[in-house]
Amino acid sequence: MIKLKSLWKSPENQIYALGWQWMVGVDTLQYITGDIVEISEEEANNYAQAANELYEMYVAAGQYVIDNHLFSQLAIPENLIETIKYSWENERHLHLYGRFDLSGGTDGMPIKLIEFNADTATCIPETGVVQWAHLKANGLDDTWQFNSLYDMLKANFERLKDLNADLLPTLLISTMKDYPEDETNVQVLGEAAKEAGFEVAYCHVEDVQFSAEEGIYTHDHFDNFYHFNFWFKLVPWEYIAYDEPELMDILNKIVLNEKAIVLNPAYTLLFQSKGILKILWDLFPNHPLLLETSDKPLKNKMYCVEKSLFGREGANIRILNSGEETVAERDGDYAHYPKIYQDYVEFLRDYQGNCYQAGVFFAYEAAAVGFRRGGRILDNTAQFVGHLIS
After folding, report:
1. Listed residue (133, 60, 37) closest to 279, CA to CA
2. Are residues 85 and 47 in the same domain?
């Protein structure tokens, strides 16, 4: 059973004291619990080592997909393949960050990969700032965490700047309108980028201007134009490629003609697609960090989990028994994508039966851990739970 400690003071005052009141968004604090997960230093190190090893395996799997042209197995759109290959081979296109979702890791349960949110991972403010502030608010040593996410993001922006020293460090950050949680996530990225020496601006993606010849820019009500050499979009690559093919065509030309650096790079869609989970199992069968995964239901298992290749936040998940009968499911908007089938594993649980999944951020290396708490299928109603190394 997972170890919990209750902290009665909210981290809100600490966040205001930092001058980061913009972080207290409508969706940021309301699902932060008064509990934290207690883990040992060894368990924290195990989470970090698992993420570092898994990233190396993902790189090997990505290279295998490219070398063998297996893009269709990952449902990668044809109109994105050339840009994926280009960004993969060009070190200018740094993977800024991603988040591994893992089961186990405490209470003697082995760590297992659930999936990797490599393109548009959220939970940045909760993991990087709020859980740290939660310890501080309650008089606990705020260094008793595996949590260097903010510093690692800053360091990665510095690497990005060094890799593109010929470009002025002008960064535009975009989300889609009416997603306040996304805006809070990118605010943290923006603060880290500013500390790394970037000039940062924000603009909803609907208001950004794209030109194959000129690159990426915005303009104001006075018809002043502002050009940006770097663009971070909290908008999934597959959404653009499938639903906005004209924009995808322009972005391809912008990237291939080096008119701008787009973050996260196009190749992160190789990692984001859950089809890579089958490739990983094929390349590293029975690896202790992996769960058996196939493109067909696992009849040799008591349960398996059906996932849409580009599903998010637990949507369109089905848990099937060996007779392929549904024992639990969540609806969603991703049912039209191809499916993979992953061996079922029990999540960590507390005394009330709540399930816990560790989220380990990776930014050049393992950077932080936080936990999400919910039901057997963790969806967008899950709560965030911080941690303490004790």
Report:
1. 60
2. yes
Q: Which residue is listed with tokens 């909210």?
A: 10
Same domain for 376 and 335: no
> Encoding tokens for residue 219?
């303009």
Question: Which pTM was predicted?
Answer: 0.95
Alpha-carbon distance 102 to 115, whole Å?
Answer: 7
Residue type, 225: F
Separation between Cα atoms, residue 242 and residue 238, nearest integer Å = 6
Are 298 and 192 members of one domain?
no
In a domain? residue 282: no
Domain hosting 260: range is 4-274+346-389
Which of 51, 82, 3 lies closest to 241, judged by CA? 82
Task: Kindly report the number of other CB atoms within 10 A of residue 387's CB atom.
Answer: 28
pLDDT in tens, 227-262: 999 999 999 999 999 999 999 999 999 999 999 999
User: How many Cβ atoms from other residues are within 10 Å of residue 299's Cβ?
Assistant: 12
- What is the DSSP secondary structure assignment for residue 364, as one 8-state letter? S
Residue 285 lies in a domain: no
**What are the angstrom distances between the C-alpha of 124 and each of 110, 128, 190?**
25, 6, 12
Is the domain of 157 the same as that of 44? yes
What DSSP state is assigned to residue 126?
I
What's the sign of the alpha-carbon dihedral 126, 131, 137, 142? negative
Q: What is the domain count for the chain?
A: 2
Regarding whether 180 and 214 lie in a shared domain, the answer is: yes
Give the DSSP H or E segment for 57: helix 41-67
Strand-pair category, 318-321 with 303-308: antiparallel
Handedness of CA 154, 32, 360, 367 (dihedral sign): positive
- Is the residue at 287 inside a domain? no
Please write the tens of the pLDDT for every residue from 47-76.
999 999 999 999 999 999 999 999 999 999
Give 297's Cβ-side CA count (13 Å radius): 12
Output the six-digit token pair for 274. Answer: 């859950």
**Residues 164 and 269 reside in one and the same domain:** yes
Residues 321 and 370 reside in one and the same domain: no
Q: Do residues 368 and 128 lie in contact, with contact meaning Cβ atoms separated by under 8 Å?
A: yes
Pair 61, 190 in one domain: yes
